Amino acid sequence: MEVNFFKIKKSNYSLLTVVFLATLIILPILSLFIGSIGIDISNFLYLSEYLLLDYTISTVYLLSLTLVFSLMFGVIPAWLISTSRFRGRKIYDLILYLPLAIPTYIMAFSYGDILSFSGPFQSFVRDFIPSLTNFVNQDYLQIEILAILLAFSLYPYLYAACRISFSLIGNNYINLSKNLGLNEINTFLKVGIPLSRPAIFSAIFLISMEVLNEYGAVSYFGVNTYTSGIFRAWGSMADMETASLLAIALFLVVCLFFGLEKWLSSKFKYNFKSNSDLSPYFKNSNKKLIFTHISCMIIILAAFAIPILYMVNNIIIDIDNIDFFDVYNLSKNTVIVSLVSSILIVVVVILIQYLKRISKSKILNFTGETISLTYALPGAVIGISLILLFSPINDYFGFLLIGSIPVLIYAYFIRYMAVAVSPIVSSFKKYPMKLDDSGKSLGLKPFQFFRKIFLPLNKSAIIIAFCICFVDIMKDLPLTLILRPFNFDTLATQTYEYAIEEMITKSSIYSITIVIFGVILLSILSVNQSKK
Amino acid sequence: MRKIVSKLKFLLFVLILTSCQNNQKSNEINIYSQRHYAVDELQYENFTKETGIKVNVTKANADELIQRMKIEGSSSPADLFITVDVGKLWQAGDMDLLQKIKDETITAGIDSEFLDPNNYWIPLTYRSRVVVFSKERVDVNDLSTYEDLASEKWKNRLLIRSSSNSYNQALMSSLIANLGSDVAEDWSTKIVSNLAREPKGNDRDQVKAIASGQGDIAVVNSYYIGLLLSSEKEEELKAGNSVGVFFPNQAENQRGAHINVSGIALTKNAPNRENAIKLISFLTSKSAQQTYVNNTYEYSVNSSVEPNEIVKNWGDFKKDKLDLNMLGVKRNEAIRIFDKTGWK
Questions:
Q1: 3-state SS, residue A188
Q2: What's phi and psi for A489, nearest 5 deg?
Q3: Using the 8-state DSSP alphabet, how is residue A485 labeled?
Q4: Nearest residue in chain A measured CA to CA from B232
Q5: What is the pTM of this model?
């Protein structure tokens, strides 16, 4: 029973630690549950009668389309870049992460304007190709276009997950598949994808949660999703209790799917062995090269270059009115809260996942991944649940905890945990338990083993988790809006405030600053990736 | 052990004392605001310069702020609540989150038609929900009232945004209050069947859709037309100039165009009540009202303050005299009519 080496004695402490952390995360959800016991369900029944079916259908349609597009934009380039070497590869690899830094609502508002009648696209056609004027004069605010736009800013989750996973597959599997006579497409479909199943699933999970929680872009496009129902109950019907009930119902459905996936994936066990060899390369035929260049360029152009050029143009137009001191201040606020929260998240996720690994306790195993389910709750609902949770403290002690930076960071911590869980879990899973045993045979204690072997091995995933967390928190709106201290603005709140008041030109300087920070971070991530 | 307990008690006492002080810093005001325009910051800066009172603001959506005040209860730090939709002020009053303001020095400068008969809120500025029309394809004489937008002649020509938009909800509430819910429901059904496309986009997008020929008339907030007409983008200006602004229900026997006010209210437990009253008084003063209209496309609630040039060009108009609280009272009914008649 040497396998249980690390389990000795410490396991109780580790169990306690994890249970404590999990409680911290689950507490607000509990307060929501308790808050919704015994409420008047007449509005709930009303919504189910008139709207929920419609809302659910459009949610499912939007979600499926967004996932299909995200898979196209994320998985295919990740494979091409991981498995072949060509000129421009590193630059593509860097830029393909970057659209993550553009918030979904900014993507939607920007393209809404770019494609509109008075936007640059139609004006260009009117001026230079007048014969096409009528053809391009369309209503572009359609659910299908929304799905593409959402995929533009969300596919990098899949790209990041697949890049790690594909580059860890190593030569053995690829060679084997070649020997079995599979061509590259078949290797991709029959080896690459199945071996990356957990990574792809966790990215799909994140993207789905983002789509489910999206409100700004979907309401702009006139699409009513389930979240629109939550806000209809809250905003229009002034019934927060029904809104929480709807949020909880959504949460339970997500839990169900999550459990189902876990159950399904437990039935397909792959004997996966990662390989530290250099990435396997297929021969580059001209056809493949052309395909690679075209597909990467289209994605980069549409998901990154066009929105960025649009923002830059807005900034040039509005340059005289820009308050750069304000931009600096908001950047400082944004960076501080994002930095502290993402460090906190990454440390806690590593701790939980590592304890889970060495203790092998079932409870740990369960809590380790279920904590990421909080991502299924809309940010605004988490915000309210925290106000519910902390208001007794306000009342009792007279402290003003709500509207303080610690509570804001706590909120980010709960909400964005999921973003860090997936890269770290998929990376940890790649290393077999044998590794831990060899650690033991070298006489390393759990902490030493972690510091000397496990941490360096997973460094790349940890950096990815940190960067994605940071970028996501930087973009956060709902939590920041409701929980921020007095006079505290971030780049995202300022961007949103202008955008929602139909002053998109003025919002561009703030959104591009988010993108610049994102670019810096994701470049670190990308450089780190290509070093591997 | 006893020592420890007494030390802890002392510590707790100190903590409570200090935090209570936190809650009532005498030279500050805390505002929960739905407004987030640059002009607001300018107003607060001017106020601080004049009085030395520091203004703290938390900006968020009105529903979230109401919920936050409700949960925070008596420990809420908020002194003032500001919205751009009077319906939300009525709601906060209805939920017992506000206290009455009876101060004639404040109300003296405000036109009485905008005042709250219950004294729960003070209006700051107002906007109208107007009809814009394609100058090319619509004869202005064909336009008359909101009710007329339901007539056959506008089939597939009308543009309006979604029913989740609070300005549309306020408009529907005013129709229910003025004409009764049966008429309003019938109107809504016909409006839906007249739509040129499903409700989507913001107010500017409705104007752009007229420019592109997707529809001929649209119902929008006057404020956004002002924004569009002051755009630095040539194509947007063109789109803005391709439409005319029409104030409905102006004939002698008609009630006037629908308006909505942006207003301010004193919270029930306002820890800095006196300072808060000073700010309300400041914001309704003639000079502050002038600042509002110079920097936004809103109308002043003091009729002696003239609006911005762009807004002035649309001319004077008769305003609906309905008690503005009705825009909140009838809100829930309005939502149900929207849902029943399929106004997305």
A1: helix
A2: -115, 150
A3: P
A4: A317
A5: 0.86
